Amino acid sequence: MTTTRRHLLAEHTELTPLITTTNVADPQAAYGALRERWGEVAPVQLEPGINAWLVLGHHELCQVVRNEQLFSRDPNNWGLFRDGRVPPDSGLGPMMFPRDNAYFADGDKHRRLRGPLDEGLAGLDEHRMSRFIRRTCVDLVNGFAGQGEADLVADYAAVVPMLTVAGLFGLPTAQGHQLRAALIALFSSAEDSAPAAQELERILTGVMRARRQTPADDLTTAFLNHPSLRDDFEIQQSMVLMISAGYETTTSWIAQTLRLMLADPRFAGRLRGGRLGLDDALDEVLWRDPPMANMPARYALVDCELGGLPIRRGDALILGLAAANADPRVHTDDPWLEIGNRSHLAWSAGPHSCPAQRAGRMITRIAVDTALHRLHDVTLSIPADAVTLLPSPWTRCPASLPVTFTKPGGSSR
Known about the structure:
Elements: H1 3-6, H2 8-11, H3 27-38, E1 41-47, E2 50-55, H4 58-65, E3 71-72, H5 79-82, H6 93-96, H7 107-122, H8 126-145, E4 149-151, H9 153-157, H10 160-168, H11 173-188, H12 193-213, H13 219-224, H14 232-263, H15 265-268, H16 278-288, E5 294-300, E6 304-306, E7 309-311, E8 316-320, H17 321-325, H18 357-374, E9 376-380, E10 402-406
Parallel strand pairs: 2-8
Antiparallel strand pairs: 1-2, 3-5, 4-10, 5-8, 6-7, 9-10
Helix pairs in contact: 8-10, 8-18, 10-11, 10-14, 11-12, 12-14, 14-16, 14-18
């Protein structure tokens, strides 16, 4: 083993930036180039001077997420962070710096902090939630139906999950929109990420204060009263986790599913009696464009080997969920053979797998179904390959989906 390979992350300063796997038209081509050069684990650049491993292989990713003894979720085990080499104002901070919530904890602490999330989700009245989501979707569609055109991201896909999640925590609509602006900046991992995280926390501190004075039937009150959360900071950070994860992933899932059903002939035909339907589209997005394309992070607790490459204690590993889903060892190139297959890693795996899969699917399914049934003759107003993406190394959410449709009682614009 050469010195270069032993010190790969430290010695390579011009590695492929991680964002080149997300902010591109063909992410699998980008993952494929990394796979061809490095194998199933590849060194990448998170930001200048900050490198990490990107886990591309399905088997290798499962090894990482199912082994807390070797790979920790706690960023205090990240060598570059621990040594002060990641600037405190880094855009990576909101996604990779330590927080007192379940996302950044291992073992007993993780189970303690995850308990309120699991119980809160299990205790949701799904019939009530379904009615709220559908009413929200109908109100939003009615708000722009008379215009004959809309942006199904800004006017719809980005609004439905935020209003839903905000409603679950007892936040009014106006604060839901404030949360959305903060979360867009947070997930960009750009210069405004840290101020956005502070704004998010300020809003949540306000609703916590209000619910202490006037309890309600919402998740904020449930978190305030949960014995597993020991102080206000843990409560606030648990809310941050649930709201940010629920918003970003669901927005992306809705937007990508709408894009697929409007642009792909296999699904667009469904609106005119085609073979493939909404649930097929939902599952295909989870396979090919999952809500989190790259998920941060795990940190090696010991020197070890993964995918034939040496991992050093303190190295950061990014989970390439989209890459692992397309691993040629476990996935075919024939989309017709994958219909009904839900063995993807879109929700990760192991003890940190997403707890909100059922709720996320409910929100997404209702949102897409409502838009497609209430907007008549809806079509993309730009070529599908002209759809741009919000800049982020973690997600591939369309920035805009401009559409035209027939106005009620009239013609399309």
